[in-house]
Design a protein that fits this description.
Layout (H helix, E strand, L loop, with lengths): L3 H18 L9 E8 L3 E4 L2 E5 L2 E6 L2 E9 L2 E9 L4 E7 L8 E9 L6 E8 L4 E4 L2 E5 L2 E3 L5 E8 L6 E7 L3 E8 L23 E4 L7 E4 L8 E5 L4 E8 L2 E5 L5 E5 L3 E3 L1
Parallel strand pairs: 1-7, 9-15
Antiparallel strand pairs: 1-4, 2-3, 2-5, 5-6, 7-8, 8-15, 9-12, 10-11, 10-13, 13-14, 16-19, 16-22, 17-18, 19-20, 20-21
């Protein structure tokens, strides 16, 4: 089965860098945005209905925009700063409600240092664990001046929240800016199952037969040398727990059991 989330992340990575590096598609005053959601959502930019996700535009003016995403009753409102001549990527995973929904905004901008690859990461909740290629770096918010060229996996995680994985390709002279919101893990309450009492029909029972003394000794072991711990009367019935040669172990009550001679019991 195709992993749609994984596929979308790869598509986002490809789209992001085709926008960043394909400069011929931009004028000096234009910028772009790529929006993917799971599942599809309505897109509003500065109050205007732009259709549904997946959404892409490379003909926007630099500056801050109001982005609104709607899926059923869950709504996401974000202010996104679009940077001159580059692109931003938005990925959002809708849950049952806003608390269980999460995603990130990823953008890239030029820096003054052409030898470094930078990273600025922030998150909700704050103090989330920031990892690069599965190695813990620090906690958010965090600025890293140089975290290396090439393909990188950035992970932001927090207890009781779903981790977010972001795949990027570091290029000297640029820095990534990540704003993430982690989705709360859905808490599944355990279902209490009341134990079903075993019916008498499912239990093996024994009935005490008539004896010469009018009662029958119950011993602590399956031997006539065992210590007498109780007496039972003819006609009484008990749950059969175990047999051992000429002896039968019966349940006297919830906490006690003992052995009686098999000669003096009838098995029901």
């Amino acid at each position: 089965m195709i992993n749609l989330k994984s596929m979308w992340k790869k598509v986002l990575l490809i789209c992001l860098f085709s926008l960043f590096l394909g400069g011929c598609s931009f004028s000096n005053k234009k910028t772009g945005i790529e929006i993917m959601t799971n599942p599809s959502a309505k897109v509003y930019i500065n109050g205007k209905n732009e259709g549904s996700t997946p959404y892409k535009s490379n003909n926007l003016k630099p500056g801050e925009i109001d982005l609104r995403l709607e899926h059923n009753e869950t709504v996401v409102n974000k202010k996104i700063k679009l940077r001159d001549g580059s692109a931003s990527v938005v990925y959002w995973d809708f849950g049952k409600n806003e608390e269980e929904s999460g995603g990130y905004v990823l953008s890239m901008e030029k820096t003054g240092d052409k030898k470094m690859v930078g990273l600025i990461a922030s998150s909700i909740p704050t103090k989330s664990i920031l990892s690069v290629d599965d190695e813990t770096v620090d906690y958010t918010p965090k600025k890293i001046d140089n975290f290396g060229e090439g393909d990188k996996k950035i992970t932001i995680s927090f207890p009781s929240y779903k981790s977010t994985n972001i795949f990027v390709r570091g290029i000297k002279g640029y820095q990534f800016i990540i704003e993430a919101k982690l989705a709360k893990e859905e808490i599944i309450e355990p279902i209490a199952i009341e134990p079903t009492p075993t019916s008498l029909a499912e239990k093996k029972m024994v009935t005490i037969k008539e004896t010469e003394t009018g009662w029958l000794r119950v011993r602590d072991t399956s031997s006539s040398a065992g210590v007498e711990i109780d007496k039972v009367n003819p006609g009484e019935s008990f749950e059969l727990l175990e047999t051992n040669n000429d002896w039968v172990k019966i349940k006297l009550n919830d906490n006690e059991s003992g052995w009686v001679s098999a000669t003096y019991v009838d098995t029901n």
